[in-house]
Amino acid sequence: MNRYSTHTCQELRTSHEGETVRLSGWIHRQRDHGGILFIDLRDAHGVTQVVVRPDRDCFEETKHLRVESVITVTGKVCHRPEENINEKIPTGEVEVIVDELEVQSSAEILPLQVADENDVPESMRLKYRFLDLRRESMQKKIMLRSQVIASIREQMQTMDFMEIQTPILTKSSPEGARDYLVPSRVHPGKFYALPQAPQQFKQLLMVSGFPRYFQIAPCFRDEDARADRSPGEFYQLDMEMAFVEQDDVFEVIERLMTHLFDKYSDWPVTETPFPRIPYREAMMRYGSDKPDLRIPFEIQDVSEIFKESDFRVFRSAVEQGGVVRALPIPETEGQPRSFVDGLEAFAKENGARGLAYVVFPKGGGKLKGPVAKYLGEAELEKLKQLPGCGEGATCFLLAGAENFVAQLAGRLRVEIAKQLDRFEKNVYKFCWIVDYPMFEQEEETGKIEFSHNPFSMPQGGMDALLNKDPLDILAFQYDIVCNGVELSSGAIRNHRPDIMYKAFEIAGYDNSVVDKQFGGMIRAFQFGAPPHGGIAPGVDRIVMMLADETSIREVIAFPMTPGAEDLLMDAPSEVSPEQLKELHIRLELPKPKKQKNAPQKTEPGTSPSSATS
Question: Contact, 391 vs 381, CB < 8 A?
Answer without folding.
Answer: no
